Amino acid sequence: MSTLFEQLTERPLADKIRPQSLEEVVGQEHLLAEDAPLGRMIKTGKVSSFILWGPPGCGKTTIAKLFASVSDLYFQPISAVFSGVSDLRKIFIQAQEKREMGQKTLLFVDEIHRFNRLQQDGFLPYVENGTIILVGATTENPSFELNGALLSRCKVFVLKPLNREALEKIYLRAETVLKRTLPISLEAKEYLIDSADGDGRYFINMIEAVDQYALSTEVLNTEQVSKIIQKRMPLYDKDREGHYNLISALHKSLRGSDPDAALYWAARAVIGGEDPKYLLRRLTRFAVEDIGLSDPQAIVQAISAWNAYERLGSPEGELAIAQLVVYLATAPKSVSVYKAWGEALRTAKETGSLSPPLHILNAPTKLMSSLGYGEGYLYDPDTEDGFSGQNYFPESMQRRLFYKPIERGFEREIKKRLMYWENLRKKKCLKK
Questions:
Q1: Alpha-carbon span 37 to 54, nearest angstrom
Q2: If residue 347 lies in a helix (H) or strand (E), which one and from where to where?
Q3: Is 4's pLDDT higher than 60?
Q4: Torsion of CA 141, 147, 149, 151, to 10 degrees
Q5: C-alpha to C-alpha distance for 320 and 317, rounded to whole angstroms
Q6: What is the pLDDT of residue 1?
Q7: Is residue 32 within 8 Å of residue 25, measured between CB atoms?
Q8: Is the pTM of this model over 0.90?
Q9: Residue 44 has pLDDT above 50, yes or no
Q10: Among 27, 314, 336, 357, which residue is least crowded by beta carbons within 10 Å?
């Protein structure tokens, strides 16, 4: 029975429209349908521990609570932010008591990634002996944030951000609960959905804010709605997976010669608060790693853009980043130098401390000269072809080919030069 105080307190809209069954959960059919992983788990009754990984507002807590209900499990929620070892110890004792009375416990740990490795290890014996069914919720990649021992005992289910169809269903459900149609234009409704960025909880809060503001029958336009809500910033954590995902997306878009996609991911990173200097460092690396000598101007453009940003700062200097992104995306790609360097490093490690051939060593003293240092060296500019064809590898080592230019961009010209020199080298060897 509710208290008088609870009766007088208006329940938030999010609480009013919270799904009362798994069938009412939207946007996660890939997990909850009858033939989907959680659907099959419920149907067979073979319940095991699992991790729900997904962005904020996609229904992790709701799914866990409803799953416990249909599986006849006692639902015990805790937050890793506010709980410690002593809280867990009490829960494990209570779960053991309930188990002895014939009821299992579903322990739902919100933000489970907040527990340190030692605390995560504390779950293991109770998961293994069946005292608890552990359901963890996290917005972070479990591969990085949860230890291997715990992951090996839990299935990982990935939840999706709510798509437009799912948000439309929430919108209709909200209007049903509110018992009126929200007085906003179709364009304003679309703006509201776009502003949610896949977060159902945030979307419901925006609907509630608009409902509370729109007291008259006047239809609000997009501009009026935008003044009511605070548009959600895109998800981006510079220290976690989102950071690496966006950088990876930028890098792959550049490599795929797609300037539009590359500009989008660079803009996402900047809007999310990424340090522009970090972006410039990664773009400079791309210039030498993925373009190299197929366009020697790529590194020049990268350093110039970096210098321009240093002088201009944000936001003006961000245009230099955009220009660099487009240049790199549209430049010919080659990893020939990158591969050549890797192969040279491996060979250098394998061959140890081989000395250079004597003829390419300087002889600053009489003793060194008498030992043959510099003897037989040919000064290439003085030769007829400007190319001597001498050996510059250690005498006990066979000549190796590391750099293999491709038939693209400026490397096409480099390849012609190398072939010309190689032919000269063979001719000079035959004369000997």
A1: 16
A2: helix 336-351
A3: no
A4: -10
A5: 5
A6: 47
A7: yes
A8: no
A9: yes
A10: 314
Using one digit for the tens of pLDDT, what is the confidence trace for 138-155? 988 888 788 888 888 899
CB 371 within 8 A of CB 388: no
For residue 273, count other CB atoms closer than 10 A to its CB. Answer: 12
For the cut 70, the answer to whether the pLDDT of residue 232 exceeds it is no
What phi and psi values does residue 146 have, to the nearest 5 degrees? -115, 145
Please tell me the distance from the alpha carbon of residue 196 to that of residue 221, in angstroms, as a whole number. Answer: 17
Query: Can you tell me the distance from the alpha carbon of 259 to that of 263, in angstroms, rounded to the nearest whole number?
Result: 6
Sheet strands side by side (includes 74-79): 74-79, 105-110, 132-138, 50-53, 155-158
Backbone angles phi, psi at 184, to 5 degrees: -130, 155
pLDDT tens readout for residues 261-295:
999 999 988 887 788 998 999 999 999 999 999 99
For 326-338, b/e burial (b = at least 16 CB within 10 A) is bbbbebbbbbbbe
Q: What's the token pair of residue 77? A: 């929620």
| Phi–psi pair at 138, nearest 5 degrees | -150, 145
The winner for highest mean pLDDT among 1-10, 187-196, 205-214 is 187-196
Structure tokens at 257: 């010669």
237's tokens: 């954590």
Q: Can you name the residues that pair with 59 across neighbouring β-strands?
A: none
User: What gap in Å lies between CA 157 and CA 154, rounded to an integer?
Assistant: 10
Asked if residues 150 and 80 have their Cβ atoms less than 8 Å apart, the reply is: no
Q: Is the peptide bond before 315 cis (omega within 30 degrees of 0)?
A: yes
Instruction: Render 196-255 in DSSP notation, one character per residue.
Output: HTT-HHHHHHHHHHHHHH--SSPPB-HHHHHHHS-PPPPP--TTSHHHHHHHHHHHHHHH
Whether residue 182 has pLDDT greater than 80? yes
Of 149, 144, 164, 156, nearest to 54 by C-alpha is: 156
